[in-house]
Write a structure and sequence with these properties.
The chain has 980 residues and is mostly beta strands. The protein has 8 helices and 50 strands. The protein has a 30-stranded mixed beta sheet that branches. The longest helix has 23 residues. The radius of gyration is 30 Å and the shape is globular. The two termini are 45 Å apart.
């Protein structure tokens, strides 16, 4: 939805607040209660940080202890100029700053770099806000700051007891009401407390904070998993029924592999705690010991239902001018149900010691050390356990036209707000057409489990010093320091692969017919222009445990396996039961970074205008050692239809690699007060961000299943260099009244060593391809001679028949088959990119009225955009987009209220398996909050997120090639906060 269109929603919300406020203000009995630490106080604190900085800095501060403005730090940060957020499960999760995505932004906790698992992007959803006193976004860097933030360095500050002498405490509770919830609790709790006290004449301080949040919600989404590129005419199809409007010179078309609707019921519990101990025996020394812990547990059950094409002969198709198949009808398509269950746990811990010592009148030394860890692991059955059931026409592939499936993208509203609409005709277990699907017609195909574990342990030691010049001259002080950071990253994965479990109708007997319950799709995905009413207005549902029990009965039934489909059984190490099996990947990376810096700070005047200058140099070197265990692939089995699987060795092999880098990073920042109200800034710096730590592995991974056209291998590279960025900033800021300002800034970034995922065609050992060998060629010729279209299912069946095997047996390659060609992807440093843009911000507080407004906009451009028409690999930067924010607030007497509108333009989200660009469409959201101060200690409040119920949409290349459309719902919190 466009920026202008959603202004209406914001205006309505503002009007609602305006109509409520007088009702509170007229209550004379409580009008002596004044809101002292509210939105206005928070904005004033933030403006002070921005104005007093030498570089370009924005901040959000807590309105009071334990009262950060939002329940999610990312939701707060999106209101800062130049900051956009990525959302996960309807909540803010990661940030993009000035077009630089999450991997290019460093997040620190009290100045300390925190470990993450896999990449280097921080997950804000793991951290509660109650213990956070401020978040600062440094858009320019200096030599004293840790590296990693090309876009920005974001520092989260936590409260410290000696900063607030005496006893203070806050208790808060919320009722969390997610309007999307169906199967969980409609109201879930969130509780938090912060307690701080000082002793022994304020020389000893103790602070303890803890929080717990429980949230249940439902996500609805439509998806097309794969848009398959086709570079040749639709050979063998009923071409008289194909309407081809393609105007592309290369003739390329894209064909949907499937289309489905999904319902995911999620449950999340988040726990945070922090203990801070401080000791200041005298005025010259303060020692701080702190421990921070966070844990998030997430469980979800997903029901997916839709159709799957076998890449077969098509009855009817329409191709638009972009080469997109906007309508496809194919005989023999599968109707599939996917019941899935997944659970994982994320844990973060940090133990830190900080000693600040005033060694002399001129010298201050600070030593800081911390050990931190981040762990992510699957729980229960694993990260993803899936059971595929459904219905197909095939009862031996003798009647491939008994059912017909189609996908329709032609709905008039689709291009701007719609989802794919699909339809299918059903058959019974004997392959006979019938009007509706019955429980007796549902069988099984595959099951599988993925279970991953990742951990990152970090140790960091820093010694910093400040020498202050007691004499005359422009030089005010010199900062210097040395630091060492070591990370040990480990990632393991267990993947059962797609374990065969019957073939559709053959296995229907293993479930009771009445176990399947018919449920209506009325209202499903009704947030989209063509959702809520579908040709197949129902789906067959059951429980995960009931379906899993049927799978295990299939596995144990030896007689059934002899009669039916595959000669192969499930791996013996699984004990014939559902499980992820042994670990098949194990990658480890050790990274050590040593740095040293020096920085001089000057204050002077030019024609009576005060000038502050900070000039510095940082040197940083890194050493990387990678190792890992790999499970070699011995063969590729053609399981049936277009399904394939790898056959792996029982023993693992070892790999290792190493790399090193060193960089000099100069920086210069200047600010000049042209008048008492007008400030100008200039900054130049060279900054770096290191590659995702999992990209530094030395292992080779065979990704997914080796379906035809999807044979993918990814190879790690421990010799990757860091991204290097030369940054220039110019800004002008006009502070014309208390709490009010206007600012405009220009920035430019020239980034070297961008990672490029290059893909080459390669073979591996003696892995051969049964799909292209002599047996396959002979079967194709025989099918065509009979006047039939060649389809993967009938090709597989005929190869088996010709070699005297059961039609559903898996096919292994032989010596006459050609070597398999894989698409091998490696990350390399190969590109230079340029970004530039403008940031405009304004804040105004209307005197004596209680009203205020905050608005900003960011415009980002560069030579790193994706070209949606290019077919081959291209370099482009994900995340770059324009953004805008508008907040209107009212705060007077007992009442505080705010409505916020956030808009982010369309942006590149990455590339799919065929190197096609994937875009997230423009998205906007309106959030509300209001509070009422009952007395000096008690406050009541309400919060609303996404109150206009917006949906999210992502597509491949062109808007009609939808890949995912997600619908959540508004989230409301009703709570109280009591201050001691």
């Amino acid at each position: 939805m466009s920026f202008k269109k959603n202004i209406l929603s914001s205006s309505i919300a503002v009007a609602m607040i305006g109509s409520v406020v007088p009702a509170f203000a007229e209550d004379d009995a409580i009008e002596e209660v004044i809101v002292e630490g509210g939105i206005r106080a928070s904005l004033l604190k933030s403006i002070d940080r921005k104005r007093n900085a030498t570089g370009v800095v924005d901040a959000i501060t807590a309105e009071d202890m334990g009262k950060f403005p939002d329940t999610n730090l990312a939701e707060s940060l999106q209101r800062i100029t130049g900051v956009s957020i990525n959302r996960s499960n309807g909540e803010g999760s990661q940030i993009t700053v000035r077009g630089m995505g999450p991997e290019f932004n460093l997040v620190t906790l009290n100045g300390r770099q925190m470990p993450t698992v896999g990449g280097r992007s921080f997950e804000f959803g793991n951290i509660a806000t109650e213990a956070v006193s401020a978040v600062e976004v440094y858009k320019t860097t200096d030599a004293s700051m840790p590296t990693g933030g090309i876009g920005a360095t974001v520092n989260m500050e936590t409260a410290k007891p000696l900063d607030n002498p005496g006893f203070s405490g806050v208790l808060g509770g919320k009722a969390v009401m997610d309007t999307s919830n169906v199967n969980g609790d409609d109201v879930t709790p969130e509780v938090a407390g912060v307690f701080s006290n000082t002793f022994a004449d304020d020389t000893i301080g103790v602070l303890l904070s803890a929080s717990y949040q429980d949230r249940d919600n439902r996500e609805q989404y439509a998806a097309v998993d794969n848009w398959m590129p086709r570079s040749t005419p639709e050979a063998g199809w009923g071409n008289d029924n194909i309407t081809d409007n393609n105007t592309r010179e290369d003739g390329m078309t894209w064909y949907p592999q499937n289309a489905g609707y999904n319902i995911a019921d999620n449950s999340r519990q988040r726990q945070n705690s922090q203990l801070v101990l401080q000791f200041a025996p005298n005025d010259s020394m303060t020692t701080t010991l702190d421990y921070t812990n966070s844990k998030v547990e997430f469980e979800g059950e997903r029901r997916g239902f839709g159709i799957w094409f076998g890449n077969a002969a098509t009855d009817t198709a329409t191709i638009n001018e972009n080469g997109t198949h906007t309508f496809v009808q194919e005989p023999g398509g599968d109707y599939a149900n996917n019941l899935a269950r997944g659970a994982y746990q994320n844990r973060n811990e940090s133990l830190g010691l900080n000693i600040e010592w005033q060694a002399s009148d001129n010298l201050t030394l600070t030593f800081d050390a911390h050990d931190s860890s981040a762990i992510s692991e699957g729980m229960g059955l694993g990260n993803d356990a899936y059971l595929i059931t459904g219905n197909t026409s095939a009862s031996g592939f003798d009647d491939p036209a008994a059912n017909t499936a189609n996908i329709d993208l032609k709905n008039a509203t689709y291009a701007s707000s719609g989802i794919p609409v699909w339809d299918i005709s059903f058959v019974d277990v004997d392959g006979n057409p019938q009007a509706e699907l019955q429980g007796s017609d549902i069988g099984s195909l595959f099951a599988g489990i993925v279970d991953n574990y990742a951990e990152n342990e970090m140790s960091q030691y820093q010694l910093d010093g400040v020498w202050e010049n007691a004499g005359d001259g422009a030089l005010q002080s010199i900062n210097f320091g040395v630091a060492k950071t070591e990370q040990n990253f480990k990632s393991t994965g267990a993947d059962s692969g797609q374990l065969p479990a019957g073939w559709w109708g053959y296995s229907a007997m293993f479930w009771e017919d009445d176990m399947w319950v018919k449920k209506s799709t009325d209202g499903l995905l009704d947030g989209f222009g063509n959702g809520g009413d579908f040709p197949v207005g129902y789906y067959m549902d059951s429980t995960f445990d009931e379906v899993a029990a049927g799978y295990e009965n299939i596995i144990d039934d030896v007689e059934y396996w002899g009669q039916c489909c595959y000669a192969a059984s499930w791996p013996a190490e699984l004990g014939g039961k559902l499980g992820a099996g042994p670990i098949d990947t194990d990658a480890r990376v050790n990274e050590e970074v040593t740095s040293v810096y020096v920085q001089a700070n000057f204050e002077d005047e030019f024609n009576g205008m005060p000038i502050t200058t900070v000039a510095g140099l940082r040197y940083e070197e890194s050493e990387v050692v990678s190792s890992g265990l790999e499970t070699p692939v011995l063969d590729m089995a053609w399981v049936g239809g277009n399904e394939w699987s790898y056959i792996r060795a029982e023993e693992q092999s070892f790999s290792e690699g190493s790399g090193s880098t060193n960089e000099f990073l100069p920086s210069l920042s200047m600010s000049m007060d042209i008048t008492d109200q007008l400030t100008s800034r200039f900054a130049y710096s060279r900054s770096l961000a290191r590659p995702p730590i999992n990209s530094l592995r030395s292992t080779t991974n065979f990704d997914g299943n080796p379906k035809v056209g999807q044979r993918k291998v990814s190879v790690g590279n421990p010799q990757l260099k860091p991204y290097i960025s030369d940054n220039i900033d110019l800004s002008l800021e006009y502070y014309y009244d208390e709490g009010s300002y206007i600012s405009a800034g220009y920035f430019k970034k020239i980034v070297d060593n961008f990672l490029v995922s290059t893909t080459t065609k390669e073979t591996f050992g003696d892995l051969r391809d049964a799909y292209l060998g002599e047996r396959a060629d002979a079967a194709r010729a025989e099918i065509e001679a009979n006047g039939d279209a060649v389809r993967d299912p009938n090709l597989h069946a005929l190869i088996n028949t010709n070699q005297g095997a059961a039609t559903q047996d898996q096919i292994l390659p032989n010596a006459t088959d050609p070597l398999t060609i894989f698409d091998v992807t490696r990350d390399t440093n190969a590109e230079t990119g340029n970004l530039h843009g403008w940031e405009i911000a304004a804040q105004h507080m209307f005197a004596d009225t209680g009203w205020g407004v905050v608005a900003n906009a960011t415009i980002v451009n560069g030579d790193v955009n994706a070209d949606r028409d290019i077919v081959d690999f291209q370099f482009a930067l994900p995340g770059m987009s324009d953004s805008a924010n508008l907040s209107v607030f009212y705060e007077k007497d007992q009442v505080s209220a705010r409505v916020s509108y956030n808009w982010r333009d369309e942006y590149l989200n990455g590339f799919d398996q065929h190197s096609s660009p994937v875009f997230n469409e423009a998205y906007s959201q309106v959030d509300l909050s209001a509070s009422y101060q009952v007395n000096d200690d008690l406050q009541l409040f309400v919060e609303g997120l996404n109150v206009t119920d917006q949906v999210q949409r992502a597509y491949v290349r062109y808007t009609e090639q939808l890949i995912r459309g997600s619908q959540y719902g508004p989230l409301y919190n009703l709570g109280a906060r009591y201050t001691f």
